[in-house]
């Protein structure tokens, strides 16, 4: 398992294969839908095979443990950034209604400038990693961790709940003491809490799932409501991907809206996409590419995403710097979420990566407080 954590493709190929397997178990799929699942599974298996042969690995935990970020120039810039994000989280809660305490179904309603504030507060997932790695004072560390976990719950943002749990757990695993067993109990408890919150928020904001008419299997129908939400979230992307591939539907406008700023809405709800359930409208990271360019476009998008992941790992291998770690946390997360919804090929993702690169340059230009001034011996008397 320790080797698996260091394998880059484990963050892309394994989630895709798991989502495909769960989709087979969750639905009684029409025969022509199996082609889409097979395409995703073959691409995932090919990426995994190539990655194993390439022998490029994430640095071992010993290198992360040997690197102290607190008190460095990188930590100074990262903490300033984290405090800005935390301030926007507070503004978001103070200036606009809190969905958890008001109308849970209004979680996606943004008006009166709320969407601009949310663009910054959405980065709340970085607060726990930065607090854990950079804060010397316990109160500051606990505050950043607390805001990072609490904010997405209050605004009923399940994606940010997962992002926060993933980033925090991965940092704990990457910096573990290799002489000790992997802390699976702590990580498992954190994961269980995350999926429990996810299920509760799903039931709270959307209610029961009885209205859906998808071809669910007997196993799914017999599952508890909370498990149904998890299965639906994990399998809706591959299901819709397979359905659209089987229906030979094409429409490039959604990809254009996703990659070209201000060109139109990226929402798939309420559109003419022939979804089997209009309210279940996600379709994997590669869904817009499938609609624009067909299966070839979807495969190309998966390959480029793997290249992006390898790039983030190569940056991390060089110096294990703080901002390279933040970039890796982001890229690995969008890879893990690739079976569920588009997050990699967005301006939000590109903006965060670009911001980390800029902050690294800014930090390098600051005076290094850890560099001691040379000791000059007094000149001997003549």
Automatic annotation (TrEMBL):
The chain crosses the membrane at residues 33-54, 75-98, 149-174, 186-204, 286-308, 320-341, 347-366. Signal peptide: none annotated. PROSITE patterns: PROKAR_LIPOPROTEIN. Keywords: Membrane, Transmembrane, Transmembrane helix. Coiled coil: none annotated. It comes from the Bacteria. This is Oligosaccharide repeat unit polymerase. It comes from Rhodanobacter denitrificans.
């Amino acid at each position: 398992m320790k080797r698996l954590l260091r394998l880059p493709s484990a963050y892309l190929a394994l989630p895709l294969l798991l989502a495909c397997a769960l989709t087979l178990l969750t639905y009684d799929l029409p025969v022509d839908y199996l082609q889409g699942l097979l395409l995703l599974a073959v691409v995932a298996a090919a990426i995994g095979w190539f990655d194993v042969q390439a022998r490029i690995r994430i640095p071992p935990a010993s290198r992360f443990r040997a690197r102290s970020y607190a008190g460095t120039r990188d930590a100074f810039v990262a903490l300033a950034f984290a405090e800005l994000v935390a301030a926007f989280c507070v503004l978001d809660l103070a200036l606009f209604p809190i969905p958890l305490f008001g109308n849970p179904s209004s979680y996606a309603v943004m008006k009166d400038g709320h969407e601009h504030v949310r663009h910054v507060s959405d980065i709340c997932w970085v607060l726990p990693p930065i607090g854990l790695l950079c804060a010397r004072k316990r109160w500051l560390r606990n505050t950043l961790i607390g805001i990072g976990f609490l904010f997405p719950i209050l605004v009923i943002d399940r994606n940010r709940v997962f992002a926060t749990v993933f980033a925090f757990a991965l940092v704990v695993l990457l910096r573990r003491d290799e002489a000790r067993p992997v802390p699976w109990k702590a990580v498992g408890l954190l994961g269980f809490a995350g999926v429990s919150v996810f299920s509760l928020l799903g039931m709270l904001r959307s209610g029961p799932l009885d209205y859906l008419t998808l071809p669910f299997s007997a196993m799914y129908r017999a599952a508890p409501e909370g498990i149904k939400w998890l299965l639906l979230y994990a399998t809706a992307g591959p299901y819709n991907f397979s359905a659209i591939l089987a229906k030979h539907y094409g429409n490039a406008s959604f990809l254009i809206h996703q990659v070209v700023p201000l060109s139109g809405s990226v929402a798939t709800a309420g559109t003419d996409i022939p979804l089997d359930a209009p309210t279940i409208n996600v379709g994997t990271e590669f869904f817009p590419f499938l609609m624009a360019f067909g299966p070839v476009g979807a495969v190309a998008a998966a390959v480029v995403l793997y290249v992006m992941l390898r790039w983030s790992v190569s940056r991390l291998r060089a110096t294990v710097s703080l901002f390279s770690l933040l970039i890796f946390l982001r890229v690995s997360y969008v890879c893990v979420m690739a079976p569920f919804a588009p997050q990699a090929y967005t301006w939000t993702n590109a903006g965060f990566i670009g911001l980390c690169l800029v902050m690294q340059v800014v930090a390098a230009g600051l005076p290094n407080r850890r560099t001691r001034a040379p000791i000059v011996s007094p000149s001997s008397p003549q």
